[in-house]
Model the fold of this input.
Amino acid sequence: MAYLLDPIAFSLGPITVRWYGIILGSAALIGLWLAVMEGKRFRIPPDFFMDLLLIGVPSAIIGARIYYVAFKWDAYKNDLLEIFKIWNGGIAIYGALIGAIIAGYIYMRRKGYDFWRIADICAPSLIAGQMIGRWGNYVNQEAHGGPVTESFLRDSLHLPAWITDQMYIDGQFYHPTFLYESMWNLLGLLLLFFLRRQSFLRAGELFFSYFIWYSIGRFFIEGLRTDSLAFTAPEWFASIINGLWSPMLVLFEPGSMDYGNVRISQLIGILIIIAAVILIVLRRKKGWSAEKYSDPIISTKSAPPASTEAN
Done:
């Protein structure tokens, strides 16, 4: 008996509610809860993070769409209205992060908070949201890897039937890359929880650690997928990317690509890792990260404490 999940959770008259939306909404709320709980340690009001979420989510969606369309411009240039039909698919996580970070930076500065301090608090929320959000791909049977055998899923990976059966798409079983990335992000979440309690951690470094961890996992998992945004690079450059991914060949075969020879997410991941490491070292050497993660967070827009002196 196959365990196949209907992408539609329920309908209310003409309104159709999909599991994908429920999962993404749940991811956002859990991310908000994590930020609010950590924010209490620094006496940051919950309303600050609620407003940040309301600003960040639409900004992330817009950024994700712009990023995807920019790299798939040939598919949209003759029908510009298609750009706005986001329900037809076509968003990219790195674009979402860019959109959310830009909007978040502006909002934090307006509230008088240092960007790096708030970004550190939000880092576990980001990776938790991605961990949960990937299950929306599971429901929609999308963002999967290349073909595999049923035996690989059931006997080698020991996956339960409700996952294995959902990976049977159009007569073929596929790599559950959503699951690989979700599990990687779970480990990353635990790592961030551990790091933020360490005395050596400076302001901004938890945020950088999130990007390093996520990008490492995304680099290797992306190589299994068959729907990657890609471009055609010189063969020597493609060989470097393939060489970095080659340890995966011990267990896996790379996913096929319809065009290009370098996956954009893999390249972006490498650049982010290099940039994050350089920034951590540079900020320490230049004294730009003198504050520790555990230091108090004070808004420059906060009202000064009331005087206790007698009139």
About this structure: Residues 136-285 form one domain. The chain has a mean pLDDT of 91. The CA atoms of residues 279 and 285 lie 10 Å apart. Residues 46-71 form the longest helix (26 residues).
